[in-house]
Amino acid sequence: MTRGTGAGTGIPAHADVLTVTMNPAVDHTLTVEEPLREGAVARTDDAQFDAGGKGINVSQYLTALGVEAPATGFLGGPFGRMIADALDDDGVARDFVEIDGRTRLNTTVLSPDGEYKINHNGPVVDGADVDALVERVRDRDPDRLVVAGSLPRGIGADTVDRLAEAGPWETAVDMGGAFLDRFDGSYLVCKPNRAELAEATGREIETLEDAASAAAELRERGYRYVLASLGADGALLVSDSGAVHARALPVDVVDTVGAGDAMLSGFLAGLARGESTEDALRTAVVVAARVVSVSGTSVPAFDDVFASRERVTVARV
Ligand SMILES: O=P(O)(O)OC[C@@]1(O)O[C@H](CO)[C@@H](O)[C@@H]1O
């Protein structure tokens, strides 16, 4: 059955966490047995389609972790309907603004020689769509708002500040490095990866100490926490009490798509459960390890995530 892309059923009147994905995507993951060759057609039986876009992934991961986290943003066209249907099927509440443009399709190719990702820039969104989105967020009056992923054409960093300042909620952002020093508001947390941290601060990041001092500099620009995802080097959390590093867990990586979203989800789930920030960092690392062990942005089993956090070693930097 095809349903509309706007509001689903079961959207709560008040949300603990509400995610905003302004540029959602269907994530198309293809696995090929041979490296791609120019001029040759690669064929595969192995194709997967997931509802994606960073905020949508956070909603899916948080919902699976037991934290109610409806999703909003912009959806349109056939891929928008696929995403709406997938969220309904997975029990993730949604309340999107329907746009005239088409939601995008992003492709990941998993090949023996590596992981290739191609992201479309997405549709154009206009001022009336943004006004409608601000109203959706106000209607849900969340405790925490997560604004994540790239912005569709026609939208700038000021829209993120507008969403953050439209009510009393705390806002987490997960966006490209070029944006992270452009916001005027105060934010709960940002989650750069190493490249984004380097881009946001104009610094070279080679060591953990480099990452910690770049994150401390970024924090001064309006974030209570900077949660930096460092891939195989684990994660770093910088707050007003200094920098803490968590080692990554050993894991067989299938692909890294969604790893950062998983890390932010684990951190927010930890905070929602009243964990200390160090324990929330541990939870973040466990959730990210689970997500990289499955392909695409599908949701892995999270059964004993909270018990497993004791396996993560943390140390002050
Ligand atoms: O183009 P953006 O918005 O920066 O990133 C979009 C995206 O790559 O991020 C998610 C993984 O983090 C995927 O679900 C999705 O395809």
TrEMBL record:
Keyword 4Fe-4S: no
Signal peptide coordinates: none
Superkingdom of this protein's organism: Archaea
Molecular function terms, GO-annotated: ATP binding; phosphofructokinase activity
Keyword ATP-binding among record annotations: yes
Protein family: Belongs to the carbohydrate kinase PfkB family.
Name of the protein: 1-phosphofructokinase
